[in-house]
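Notes on consecutive records. When two proteins share a document, each keeps its own sequence and its own token line. Never mix them. Below: protein one.
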Amino acid sequence: MSARTPVRLGQFSRHFARASPFRKPLGRRYQTTEATPTTPNQTTFQRLWNSPVGLKTVHFWAPVMKWALVLAGVSDFYRPAEKLSLTQNLALTATGAIWTRWCLIIKPRNVLLAAVNFFLGCVGVIQLGRIFMWQRQVKNGTVTELVEQDAKDAARTAKGGITENPEAAAKNALQ
């Protein structure tokens, strides 16, 4: 065996490493010169069906189902602020903020999921604002004044408001 054998073996292996069909090019990505797309013309429904975030995937159905959380949060706009949960709305806000960013980073980029998470965060922020405003009012004593006023109105109605003016009492009962 000659002393040049390792050199020849090194040159031989480098040649096959460059010519390997599995090796990716180091420079630019592979670019085609074709002017037409590789897939035939598809209808809008076919493109939606075969898309990486299409109707067959969880990337479509998860955001659709998550809109129920947004709608539940919007329906809570009509609830009194004292009945809202601070921790639940804090969790909704954090979920919306974190997952909105994450949906724009992952591949395939899911804009539908990012949109639902953005609105979930918005609903949480609004509810947190309502809770904090209510807590500030309780601290200042304005809510207790309202409760006392309601108690006085109820006592006045119970004492004689019904017998004095039955039509007005009937209207108040229907409201």
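Protein two starts on the next line and is unrelated to protein one.
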Amino acid sequence: MTKHDEYESPLAHRYASREIKRIFSPRERASTWRKLWLWLAEAEKEIGLTQITDKALEGLRSNLVVSDEAYQVIAEEERIRRHDAMSHIFALEKDAPDAAGIIHIGATSCYATQTGSSAMAFKSNPMRSERICSLGRKLSNISTNFSATFSSRHPPNRHPGDVPPNRALLILLDDVTNGIVVFPAMIRSQLEEELPFMATENFIMKLVHKGISRQDAHERIRVLSRQTVETMKTQGTKNDLIERIKKDNFFKPIWDDLDGMLDPKLFIGRSAEIVEKYCGSSGPLMGKLEKYRDYINSTAT
């Protein structure tokens, strides 16, 4: 088989320079991850995470480029873990054993802190499901290019028929939301059912703070979360993840902290402040709606 028997993007083959191809290569992407993990660890050490040692940082600095041998480890691990980022972390820990347990601390797959990626431990096939969505989005937008080409060759005539559906949509939205009733007790009940899963990232971070490896903590959370979901789905039980954690000695270092980490207010960030600032009486939304005030008042129920 030659290169003429395999698909190759004509954009890369005909138009991309060697440097551009290198920048977008798998090795460059994976090596960039390693740089990000190093920078994250350096910043976390700077703000006081004592478990990140100088020796760990030196190990990361010495292994910033992903070797061919590391790629073999990554390929094998991904077959087992079915998670690319976790497989890369495992390979880096083998290259830099002094950094084992501190790589990726406090970060999601996109290096943003405390956004709940590790809470996906309770989900089934999260990575593959994300890929399915991405591929579906890619496929659904392929026809957009052809439509754009057609519209540029044949200037479209805007038809007044475009307007009624838009107006109808707004009328229906107003009808559905007008007089809406909120049930706080029901909201709290549903929130409490999911809250233990939402809090798992905080559990992991608290364990790491106690000196436990993030990867070990993530795996133990994943196991208990999957057990919890299984009984919820097959037996109709309530979410008993917290009870399971309180019976597992692995989590003993944080048993006394669990209840305090389940306060719903810990998971809303600045949302209340943002909503009030934008939608409150002196916010910009009220100013935008002022000229429609009479109509809004006349249709309110």
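For the record: The CA atoms of residues 245 and 251 lie 6 Å apart.
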